[in-house]
Amino acid sequence: MINIIWFIILVSSIVFGIVTGNGEVISKSIVKTTYSTVELMIRLVGMMCLWCGVMRIAQESGLTDKLAKGLRPILKKLFKSAGRDEKALGNIIMNLTANMMGLSNAATPFGIKAMEDMQRLNPDKHRASDDMALFLVLNAACIQIVPTSVISIRAAANSQNPASIMIPAIIATGTAAVVGCICCKVLQKYF
């Protein structure tokens, strides 16, 4: 449905621009924005490769297993069944850690694996478990300790101080994660 909406918006704006005599402006702006988008993506590729490699090294070195053991008391209280499963817990930790470092692209494969593991533990295969719902909330509202993607974008856009958003990002995402977790736990009692 969203593809249809975007298509209608795009086509209607192009047709409106042509009808009003702004076809040349539209074509120039399309070329300019597509060029700047590709340029920005090329600047970000190096940063994303670096952090994806760091996360892979952390996984292969066993660092995530150690981190999972350190976070086990908190996760056991948060996740009922997934907190007791080593494989699910490891993927949850990797996902949340990657999100905390601002690497949502690197976190996605771990999130998918964590959901598959939680589905394996789920007694009702046609309905999301409480752990799955909580994980989605924590994944969406994860604390951003180092918002690397945003810092990279700000640096690529020649910001004077790209990292100046770190403290506000920690406060905003920390608040979102805590409120989301509380809401999820309260709603689990009623649904």
Give me the secondary-structure topology.
Layout: H1 2-19, H2 23-61, H3 63-78, H4 86-100, H5 104-121, H6 130-140, H7 148-156, H8 166-190
Helix pairs in contact: 1-2, 2-7, 3-4, 4-5, 5-6, 6-8
Task: Explain what this protein looks like in three dimensions.
The chain is mostly helical and 191 residues long. It has one domain. 79% of the residues lie in helices and 0% in strands. The chain is built from eight helices and no strands. The chain has helices at residues 2-19, 23-61, 63-78, 86-100, 104-121, 130-140, 148-156, 166-190. Helix 1 runs antiparallel to helix 2 and helix 3 (63-78) packs across helix 4 (86-100). The longest helix is centred in the first third of the chain and has 39 residues, at 23-61. The radius of gyration is 21 Å and the shape is globular. The mean pLDDT is 85.
Key features of this structure:
191 residues; mainly alpha; globular
Short description:
By secondary structure, the protein is mainly α. It contains eight helices and no strands.
